[in-house]
Amino acid sequence: MPLWGVKNVKKPANFRSSVPGITPASAFLIGVVMFAVTGCANADPFLKWPWSKSSGPKDSAGLKSSQQWISADDQVAQAELDEAKRLFDAKDFENAQDRYHSFLRKYRSKKIPQPMTEDALFYEAEAMWQQKNNREAAPSFRNYIKTFPNGRYANFTNQRMFQIADYWLQ
Question: What pLDDT was estimated at residue 31?
C-alpha cells in the first residue's frame, strides 16, 4: 500500500553505487565534514578560523546610533552633510544647495554609506525647488529617482516632479 501516494520502489538486482566502496553512512559523514569545513556550519562560536573576517575594526573609530562601525572619513562626511542640513532647515537654501552640491562632487568616487548620498541628492534638488529654480530642480529630482527608484524620498520626489510639470503646463 502506498504511503501518501508514493509507491515503494525496489532497487534492481544489478544496482551499484556510483562510487564503489562508499556506503551511505560514509557518504553522509563525508558530507557533514565538508559542510563544517567550508564554514557553512560552526558548532563552536568561539572557534575563529585564521581566514575569517573580524566583526569590526580593532580600534573604535566611532559608532552610529544603529551600533554600526563607521570610519573617520564617514564621520567627516556626516558632519558636512549635517551642516548642509542645518542650512536647509534655517531656510538658507542657496548655501545649502552649494554645500550639497560640493558634498556630492567631493564624495562621488568614494565609498560612503548610501543614506548619505541619498540625502544629499534629494536635499540638493529640494533646495533648488525651494528657490523656485525649476529648470535645475527637475533634472536633479530625475537623477534622484534614477539612482534611488525605491528610496526614502521617492514618493515626495515624484510629487515635486509633478508639481514642476504642472507649473510648466500653466
Answer: 74
Q: Tell me the pLDDT tens digit for each residue of 115-149.
A: 899 999 999 999 999 999 999 999 999 999 999 99
CB 125 within 8 A of CB 137: yes
73-77 long-range contacts, Cβ below 8 Å, gap at least 24?
Answer: 73/110, 73/112, 74/112, 74/113, 74/116, 77/103, 77/107, 77/110, 77/112, 77/116
Give CA–CA dist 122/24, Å, rounded. Answer: 60
- In terms of pTM, does the model score above 0.90? no
Report the Cα–Cα distance between both ends of the chain, in Å, rounded.
78
**Region of residue 48 (left: phi > 0; alpha: psi -120 to 50; beta: else):** beta
What SS3 state is found at 88? helix
User: How far is CA 122 from each of CA 7, 109, 127, rounded to the nearest angstrom?
Assistant: 62, 18, 9
Average model confidence (pLDDT) for the chain?
Answer: 78
Question: What is the identity of the amino acid at 8?
Answer: N
